[in-house]
């Protein structure tokens, strides 16, 4: 790079910074809600509700349907255009898909070696949903509330209803599989962990909500919200998307493995006389 | 029913429905076909591996059989060699025996012939000696007889002259 080019680059960066500073401090800001209102709404979604075919719902539900729509569309394209052209020696994208399927299938086999056919599929779907619904908030898609305000669609699992749905669905999946494969013993095994759906739901909700709240706080108080927090938010969102995916799928696979585990056959007790006779 | 934290059963069910739809779509559109492809490929390579293992086993068995045959052939060859050697030794012993017999016969024959020649020579010599002796005697006799006759004749002649 020549000296002239470096000079031009430095001038451009300085100009951009000056424009940003002018924009931040001199232009009048929009009317903002208080941080308490923003936090409360972030947790409870009481005020900003969106109409779904006449039904007032939380923005999280709209996010959930949007994420599902996007994933299904992506899968449809992959199914039609990519999968029929799969090669024995995979390319990059095929390798990515195979790695994802292979990872969850392997996780199912590791934690539930006796029954894992459907578990692999469940883990794959739950993992994909958790991951993509978490990074969905990075898109910053907007929706219009019933009050005519614009809100950014949050991660579906940051809505407690979404987190409870996943937690309870996972628990029911484990319970039903336990009843089918482990009979009464499997059902008892699952039922004794009655706190599982609650812990799963609130852990997911808490983990995702905390990230959203911290980001909201940063956006609220720091004027350079579009420079520093955006970088940090992307980094943390990706990180906790991976962590939540891993934790959820790991928990489901471990509990599934426990509930569907076949009973261990105990060796038959021999009569005392037989044992004594053998000892003789 | 007002639940805390704005928990709404209807929305929970809608979220669950959304998840079920996603599960069905992801399972049939992505997971199942990819897994099927992976399993088919794995099965193919497993079959190839099994086939290779089978062929390797067959090759091992063939090698073992060949080695066994080779061992058998070596044993057979050793047996045959021993038999041939024994036969050859027997043959050689037989021939040596025959040769010895032949030699003995030849020696005996030679000895007999030598004895016969010796006997003949002795007999011839005896005959010669006898003949020579007879001739000598004859000659001596003749000489002495001749002299006596000559003397007689001379005496006769003398007597005739005197007479």
Write the layout of secondary structure elements.
The complex is a heterodimer of chains A (280) and B (163).
Chain A: H1 3-26, H2 35-44, E1 50-52, E2 55-57, H3 59-82, H4 92-111, H5 117-135, E3 142-144, E4 150-152, H6 160-191, H7 196-221, H8 228-259, H9 272-279
Antiparallel strand pairs in A: 1-2, 3-4
Helix pairs in contact in A: 2-7, 4-5, 4-8, 5-8, 6-7, 6-8, 7-8
Chain B: H1 9-162
Describe this structure in a few short sentences.
Chain A is mostly helical and 280 residues long.
Count of separate structural domains of chain B: 1
Poorly predicted runs of chain A are none
The number of domains of chain A: 1
Distance between the termini of chain A: 95 Å
- State the share of residues found in helices of chain B, binned by percent: over 70%
Q: Count every helix of chain A, treating DSSP H or I runs of 4 or more residues as helices.
A: 9
| Beta-strand content estimate of chain B | under 5%
- Describe the main β-sheet of chain A briefly: 2 strands, antiparallel
- Counting copies of identical and different chains, the oligomeric state is heterodimer
Distance between the termini of chain B: 221 Å
Global morphology of chain A:
globular
Give the strand order of the largest sheet of chain A, numbering strands 1, 2, ... along the chain.
1-2
Query: SS-based structural class of chain B?
Result: mainly alpha
Word description of this protein:
The complex is a heterodimer of chains A (about 280) and B (about 160). In chain A, about 70% of the residues lie in helices and about 5% in strands. Chain A has helices at about 5-25, 35-45, 60-80, 90-110, 115-135, 160-190, 195-220, 230-260, 270-280; strands at about 50, 55, 140-145, 150. A two-stranded antiparallel ribbon of chain A has the order 1-2. Chain A has a two-stranded antiparallel sheet with strand order 3-4. The radius of gyration of chain A is 26 Å and the shape is globular. The termini of chain A are far apart. The model of chain A has no long low-confidence stretch (mean pLDDT about 80). Chain B starts with 8 loop residues before the first helix and ends with a helix. Chain B has one domain. Helices cover about 95% and strands about 0% of the residues of chain B. In chain B, about 10% of the residues are buried. Chain B is built from one helix and no strands. By secondary structure, chain B is an all-alpha fold. The chains are: A mainly alpha (about 280), B mainly alpha (about 160). The interface between A and B is large, with 43 and 30 residues.
């Amino acid at each position: 790079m020549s000296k002239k080019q470096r000079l031009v680059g430095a001038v451009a960066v300085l100009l951009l910074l000056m424009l940003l500073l002018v924009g931040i401090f001199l232009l009048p800001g929009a009317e903002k809600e208080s941080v308490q209102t923003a936090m409360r709404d972030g947790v409870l979604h009481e005020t900003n509700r969106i109409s779904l075919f006449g039904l007032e719902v939380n923005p999280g539900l709209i996010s959930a349907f949007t994420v599902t729509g996007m994933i299904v569309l992506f899968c449809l394209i992959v199914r039609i255009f990519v999968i029929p052209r799969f090669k024995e020696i995979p390319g990059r994208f095929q390798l990515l898909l195979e790695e994802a399927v292979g990872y969850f299938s392997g996780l199912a086999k590791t934690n539930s070696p006796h029954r894992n056919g459907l578990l692999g599929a469940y883990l794959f779907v739950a993992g994909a949903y958790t991951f993509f619904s978490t990074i969905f908030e990075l898109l910053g898609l907007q929706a219009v509330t019933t009050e005519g305000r614009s809100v950014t669609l949050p991660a579906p699992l940051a809505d407690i209803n979404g987190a409870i749905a996943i937690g309870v669905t996972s628990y029911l999946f484990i319970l039903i599989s336990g009843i089918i494969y482990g009979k009464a013993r499997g059902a008892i095994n699952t039922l004794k962990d009655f706190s599982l759906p609650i812990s799963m739901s609130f852990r997911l909700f808490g983990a995702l909500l905390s990230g959203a709240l911290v980001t909201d706080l940063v956006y609220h108080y720091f004027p350079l919200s579009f420079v520093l927090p955006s970088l940090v938010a992307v980094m943390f969102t990706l990180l906790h998307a991976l962590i939540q995916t891993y934790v959820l799928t790991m928990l489901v696979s471990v509990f599934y493995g426990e509930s569907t585990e076949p009973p261990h056959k105990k060796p038959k007790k021999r009569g005392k006389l037989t044992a004594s006779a053998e000892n003789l | 029913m007002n639940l805390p934290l704005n928990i709404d059963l209807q929305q929970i069910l809608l979220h669950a429905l959304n998840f079920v739809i996603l599960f069905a779509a992801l399972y049939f559109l992505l997971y199942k076909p990819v897994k099927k492809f992976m399993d088919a490929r794995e099965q193919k390579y497993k079959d190839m591996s099994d086939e290779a293992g089978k062929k390797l086993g067959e090759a091992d068995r063939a090698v073992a059989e060949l080695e066994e045959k080779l061992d058998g052939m070596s044993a057979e060859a050793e047996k045959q060699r021993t038999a041939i050697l024994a036969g050859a030794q027997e043959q050689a012993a037989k021939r040596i025996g025959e040769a010895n017999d032949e030699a003995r016969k030849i020696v005996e024959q030679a000895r007999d012939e030598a004895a016969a020649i010796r006997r003949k020579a002795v007999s011839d010599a005896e005959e010669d000696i006898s003949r020579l002796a007879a001739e000598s005697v004859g000659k001596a006799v003749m000489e002495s007889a001749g002299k006596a006759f000559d003397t007689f004749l001379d005496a006769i002649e003398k007597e005739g002259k005197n007479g």
